[in-house]
């Protein structure tokens, strides 16, 4: 399961991901977090400050940690891949807990349903944006809170962990305190049916009440957002949006008719949880640990969906960033359907109902992904334009290069201001690196000239480069030695073109205080194209030395630019996404066959 989910997401990111910071990353990370941190003015007040309605404390700390670990290089792709670990943590936690609660008989159901729900990239907004870690963190803290508080005795280690996570959930998204609300609701019910345990339940209820109260007190309301949303003033419209979103995955854009979502799909999808909950409440049953967790999970998703309908109900369907939450509602309904009591004589019918219900959900999930695919393709094209136009501004410092073009932030002026900040500019991802052309300390025969490459080669991303193809053509012979260069990242990238690698052509790094230079040799002969060489950055300042002793060949090189160690690892691991995905499918198939054989035997 883990291999399948990991491979699916890596493959998706490799196809559609981009390392350009987008939208809220520029102000939420770049301007308000990284710049103050770099100039030593970042305060805890800033860490806890509101971002729209939310206080994204853990997202900020997570982003700072990745920045530091990546040799102080800002790389959204690193954040995107790191978010996979958060998503995997959610999946693994659910599998472990649900296996403990439901027993070995439900193991296949748990593993395959979670593998399917996590393996299909319907929540592409969260997958393709590093800043969306707030969603994964909020969900993970909420799950830990429900498990720790509801399933363990007061004041035990796991109970305290749950209480802390109930508090931590709020410091990701404003709706994070809903975990505490659900716990309060369940504790109120338990007080009614267990009066002799009232004191124990009141302790948890009181603490969670404090968490809810403080969360509401510190939540910031943004008037402009509310004014633009007509659903704030219409209760009927809010209820319609709430119902439509609950009908996930049978929602827009897969289902454009809201009546189908509301009156056909919603009753089918939430009937199991409705019956499950009504039975417990009507019969005043004391829920088992498994039933407690499913009640809490389903109730939490319903509250989250209500907030979506209230705050974003203007849209026909939920945004892709909310779908990771809505998918947990599907899981809660599946588990509720599994736990509904059926007599032995109806056991076969029960199994068929579960299978039919799962097919209905699977068809909806796949249909939703397919209908979302053109949107994802459009996003890939748009983000490629973001990269192109942002680099153009970095190279020219002309704000007109951003005018009336796709840019990765809503305000052209603010984007230009932040990019011009020298602190932020130094940590931009390698895809946006535009190093200054270093002057030559020693140059023989003027052989290495600016943009000295064969005409059909073309420039490297519109940068100025050095090359030995001069006005003399190939016959030019000579040597180039740059002024000292210092790079802070662990690795660096040097783009080269031409015939470097052939005898008589040399590119190397001459490190101050070291006798042996570091040779730069591309893995393949570039010819009339550009190939990147990755080398470990020397610990000391170094010079670039280029030698052309061949009258029949040429080569060119761009300036070295730093590559953070996590950026390099991310580039490497993304190449394995497709292989890991199919390996995961194979392993899941083998697991299923092995368990079928056990049943037959």
List the defining traits of the structure above.
single chain, 601 residues, alpha+beta, Jelly Rolls, 6-stranded antiparallel sheet, 5-stranded antiparallel sheet, 21 helices, 11 strands, disordered C terminus
Brief characterization of the structure:
It is built from 21 helices and 11 strands. The chain has helices spanning 2-16, 24-38, 44-48, 57-69, 76-102, 107-119, 124-127, 133-150, 157-170, 178-193, 198-218, 223-227, 235-246, 258-282, 289-312, 323-339, 347-396, 412-420, 422-426, 565-574, 577-600, and strands at 440-443, 449-450, 466-467, 478-482, 491-498, 505-511, 518-519, 527-536, 542-548, 555-557, 561-563. A hairpin with a 6-residue loop joins strand 6 and strand 7.
Quaternary structure annotation: single chain
Note the main sheet: 6 strands, antiparallel
End-to-end distance: 25 Å
CATH topology of the domain at 440-559: Jelly Rolls
Relative strand content = 5-15%
Report the strand count. 11
CATH architecture of the domain at 440-559, by name, is Sandwich
Spans where pLDDT lies below 50 across 5 or more residues: 596-601
Rough outline: elongated
| Percent range of helical residues | 55-70%
SSE layout and pairings?
Blueprint: H1 2-16, H2 24-38, H3 44-48, H4 57-69, H5 76-102, H6 107-119, H7 124-127, H8 133-150, H9 157-170, H10 178-193, H11 198-218, H12 223-227, H13 235-246, H14 258-282, H15 289-312, H16 323-339, H17 347-396, H18 412-420, H19 422-426, E1 440-443, E2 449-450, E3 466-467, E4 478-482, E5 491-498, E6 505-511, E7 518-519, E8 527-536, E9 542-548, E10 555-557, E11 561-563, H20 565-574, H21 577-600
Helix pairs in contact: 1-5, 1-6, 1-21, 5-6, 5-8, 6-16, 8-9, 8-10, 8-15, 9-11, 10-11, 10-15, 13-14, 13-15, 14-16, 15-16, 16-17
